[in-house]
Amino acid sequence: MKKYSISKQALQRLPSYLNYLNWAKRENVKNISSPTIASDLKLNEVQVRKDLAAISSTGGKPRLGYNVDTLISDIKVFLGYDETDKAVLIGAGQLGRALLSYNGYEDYGLEIVAAFDVDNAVVGKKFKGKPIYHIDMLDRVCKKNNIHIGIITVSAENAQEACDKLVECGILAIWNFAPCHLVVPDNILVQHENTAASLAFLSMHLREKMKNEK
Ligand SMILES: NC(=O)c1ccc[n+]([C@@H]2O[C@H](COP(=O)([O-])OP(=O)(O)OC[C@H]3O[C@@H](n4cnc5c(N)ncnc54)[C@H](O)[C@@H]3O)[C@@H](O)[C@H]2O)c1
After folding, report:
1. Which residues cross the membrane (predicted)?
2. pLDDT by residue for the chain (214 residues), tens digit each?
C-alpha cells in the first residue's frame, strides 16, 4: 500500500477516524463518504478528503465513498496497529500500575512487557502478570527483547534520570506522563501526555460557557 508522509495534525486525526469507522461498522454501515465523516466528526470536508486519500489503498468511489472495512484496515496498517511494538514502563506507582493493567493498548499495537522501579515494596513482584524489575535490570531487559519504546510514570523530579536511562538502553521513543520537560538527543522522539494541560482546557471551556450563560 502507498505510505505517504502526512502532517502531524493529520496523523493525530487518524485514531478519531478509526473510532468513528469502528462505530459505523457496528451500525452495519458498509460504505461511507468523506463528507459524511467530516460532518459527523465536525471536521473540515477538504481536510478529511485529503487525510483519507493519503492513507487509503483503494481510494473512495464516486457516490459510494470508501468501503468501511477496507478503510479501517488501511488506517490500522498506516498507524502500525497491525504490528505490536513492545514497551517498558518506568515507575510502577499509581499511574504506572493503571497503565500496566489496561489491555486495550494491544489494540493500538503497544504491549507493555515489563515495569521498572526502585522501591523494594514492588520490585520482584508481578502486576497483572507483568514483572516489575529493579531499574538496574533495564538495559538487560530492553536489549534482550529488542525494545524501543519507553513509558515514564515517575515523578517530575525523577523523570530526567529515567529518561536518560531509557536513552542509554537504546529506547528511541518515549511516552512521558511526568509533568516536565525532558532533554533528549535529536534522534529520540518524546510524546508528552500532559493531563494538566487537558484539564486546564476543559476548565477554561467550562468557565467561558458558564460566563456566557449568565
Ligand atoms: N496518578 C495519576 O493519576 C497521574 C495522572 C497524570 C499524570 N501523573 C504523573 O505520573 C507520574 C507518576 O504519578 P503516580 O501518581 O503514579 O506516582 P507514584 O508516586 O504513585 O509512582 C511513582 C513511582 O515511580 C517510582 N520511581 C521513582 N523514582 C524512580 C526511578 N528513578 N526509577 C524507577 N522508578 C522510580 C516510585 O518508586 C513509584 O513507585 C507523576 O509524574 C505524575 O505527575 C499521574
Report:
1. none
2. 445 678 989 999 999 999 999 999 999 999 999 999 999 999 999 999 999 999 999 988 888 899 999 999 999 999 988 888 999 999 999 999 999 999 889 888 899 999 999 999 999 999 999 999 999 999 999 999 999 999 999 999 999 999 999 999 999 999 999 999 999 999 999 999 988 778 887 888 888 888 887 7
CATH number for the region 8-79 comes to 1.10.10.10
Could you tell me which of 170, 171, 165, 174 has the C-alpha nearest to residue 192?
174
Contact (Cβ atoms closer than 8 angstroms) between residue 171 and residue 190: no
**Separation of CA 197 and ligand 1 centre (Å):** 18
**Strand 189-192 versus strand 31-32 pairing type:** unpaired
Q: Which of 88, 119, 155, 168 to mutate to test the pocket of ligand 1 (most atoms within 8 A of CB)?
A: 155
Rounded distance between C-alpha atoms, residue 205 and residue 89, angstroms: 33
Q: Which amino acid, residue 79?
A: L
Task: Note the pTM of the prediction, 2 decimals.
Answer: 0.85
- Amino acid symbol at 64: L
CATH architecture for the domain at 85-197: 3-Layer(aba) Sandwich (3.40)
Do the annotations mark residue 178 as ligand-binding? no
- 91 labelled as ligand-binding? yes
Q: How far apart are CA 99 and CA 93, in angstroms?
A: 10
96 carries a ligand binding annotation: yes
